[in-house]
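Here we describe the complex-level prediction in full. Unlike the single-chain runs in Section 2.1, the two entities below were treated as one system.
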Amino acid sequence: QVQLQESGPGLVKPSQTLSLTCTVSGGSISSGRYYWGWIRQPAGQGLEWIGRIYTNGNTNYNPSLKSRVTLSVDTSKNRFSLKLRSVTASDTAVYYCASLDCGGDCPIDYWGPGTLVTVSS
Amino acid sequence: QSVLTQPPSVSGAPGQRVTISCTGSSSNIGAGYDVHWYQQLPGTAPKLLVYGNNNRPSGIPDRFSGSKSGTSASLAITGLQAEDEAYYYCQSYDSNLSGVFGGGTKLTVL
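The structure predicted for the assembly as a whole is:
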């Protein structure tokens, strides 16, 4: 069973770049049918899709975040990463990394436990 | 404002049946993209409950079932139990291949 773990700073200053990494264990990130994604959830609110990436670098982003987001994957370290530029307080949220089984219609089958990122000076 | 629309809350007594609706549009659910459902217990990550409109992952009881028609989908929970009290989210894809979520529905077991 795949396990995912987010890591990165819990506090980011406004206008700076939020950077998170997700380490995958229990399976290869290069597994053919899987995409790897990021979702976030502000406190007391619903889930928001950030984007997904395949190991060949193919990406799909939320249009509302696309101009500030970059996803990347490092197959040698079995991990993938999120960069969100020019953050503001509204980017404060729990960030989840996830695996998407795209053998079908890409449900999110495994989630990391989530990591809280606060944007504040 | 979420792309998919869910009722903010539903409730039911133990043993009863409840349904949660998820309404989209012609650019997502109506375009043929499957709907997936997730359960989120307080303080935890969401968990996949139903995928591909009406399929359950291993370990999910058959009390949970999904359906899809046109631009909408539904999650039905029968034989309500206290441990079903949680938030439920529907998810699909838009024509730009970005994922979209419903705003979430809080299920209260009375």
